[in-house]
């Protein structure tokens, strides 16, 4: 089985609609794909409706969090799978994050303009469309203006990375609270790309250990922004802490140069994720069971 547990659609900052993403996943020969848009489940229904026979959808989200305390402050992302999307406390927190995205993006536009970049809010809003506006949309605006060569080049201290010249904070969950809330909603949590240094930070192993003690289920090891040594270390850390080690593409359509299924999760790990979840269930494609 080929299993990709981290993708984004136009419901947040991807360029494929949820239905188009599902078609692309099927064309790539995936058996299982998770839709994990930032802080929203808005694309799930469209994705489920587009499922062909042989492809299974894992409903999820990528939660915006901020680690404080001795290891922080730093932004971290928490992948949440198979939780009850209507659980009131988690829903309220997701709405708080989403509602703060527009004021935060406008503040970053103002900072960019103060740095001499001729970006406008109208340009960023056009790029974001109906999605949850975020830094990738600002990064694409910088690409359009010729300020940087690629979206990833915008995520540096010079521009949009945490603490960067044009960075502005938004409401974010404490990651320990995120683990608690997702668990209470019947879901499973996986810490996303913990060693993606180009984003401006590496999550300290001490923080990962504390999250594991708090109930974190897994950690994303195989990711495009992890080099071979990083992947090996994350897998070793997962073994030390009793965490599930996952792999995934973090697909964003044309916004990032990474293909669906570029990194995948072992079927046994996926099986354990589904066994632990009680808030929701994987959605098989029309007509039946996923390919074996």
Automatic annotation (TrEMBL):
<dbReference type="GO" id="GO:0004534">
    <property type="term" value="F:5'-3' RNA exonuclease activity"/>
</dbReference>
<dbReference type="Pfam" id="PF02811">
    <property type="entry name" value="PHP"/>
</dbReference>
<dbReference type="InterPro" id="IPR052018">
    <property type="entry name" value="PHP_domain"/>
</dbReference>
<dbReference type="InterPro" id="IPR003141">
    <property type="entry name" value="Pol/His_phosphatase_N"/>
</dbReference>
<feature type="domain" description="Polymerase/histidinol phosphatase N-terminal">
    <location>
        <begin position="3"/>
        <end position="67"/>
    </location>
</feature>
<dbReference type="GO" id="GO:0035312">
    <property type="term" value="F:5'-3' DNA exonuclease activity"/>
</dbReference>
<dbReference type="InterPro" id="IPR004013">
    <property type="entry name" value="PHP_dom"/>
</dbReference>
<dbReference type="InterPro" id="IPR016195">
    <property type="entry name" value="Pol/histidinol_Pase-like"/>
</dbReference>
<protein>
    <submittedName>
        <fullName>PHP domain-containing protein</fullName>
    </submittedName>
</protein>
């Amino acid at each position: 089985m080929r299993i990709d547990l981290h993708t984004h659609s136009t419901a947040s900052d991807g360029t494929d609609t949820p239905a188009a993403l599902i078609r692309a996943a099927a064309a790539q020969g995936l058996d299982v794909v998770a839709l994990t848009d930032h802080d929203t489940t808005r694309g799930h229904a469209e994705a489920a409706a587009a499922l062909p026979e042989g492809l299974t959808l894992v409903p999820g989200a990528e939660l915006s969090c901020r680690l404080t305390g001795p290891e922080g402050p730093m932004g971290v992302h928490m992948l949440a799978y198979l939780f009850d999307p209507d659980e009131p406390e988690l829903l309220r927190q997701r709405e708080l994050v989403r509602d703060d995205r527009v004021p935060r993006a406008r503040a970053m536009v103002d900072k960019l303009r103060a740095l001499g970049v001729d970006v406008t809010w109208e340009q960023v809003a056009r790029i974001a469309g109906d999605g949850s506006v975020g830094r990738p949309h600002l990064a694409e605006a910088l690409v359009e203006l010729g300020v940087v060569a690629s979206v990833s080049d915008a995520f540096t201290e010079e521009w949009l990375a945490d603490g960067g010249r044009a960075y502005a904070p938004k409401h974010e969950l404490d990651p320990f609270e995120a683990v608690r809330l997702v668990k209470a909603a019947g879901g499973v949590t996986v810490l996303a790309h913990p060693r993606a240094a180009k984003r401006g930070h590496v999550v300290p192993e001490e923080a990962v250990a504390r999250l594991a003690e708090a109930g974190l289920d897994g950690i994303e090891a195989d990711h495009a922004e992890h080099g071979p040594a990083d992947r090996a270390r994350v897998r070793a850390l997962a073994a030390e802490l009793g965490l599930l080690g996952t792999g995934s593409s973090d697909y964003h359509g044309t916004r990032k140069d990474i293909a669906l299924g570029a990194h995948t999760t072992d079927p046994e790990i996926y099986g354990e994720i589904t066994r632990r979840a009680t808030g929701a269930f994987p959605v098989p494609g029309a007509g039946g069971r996923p390919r074996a």
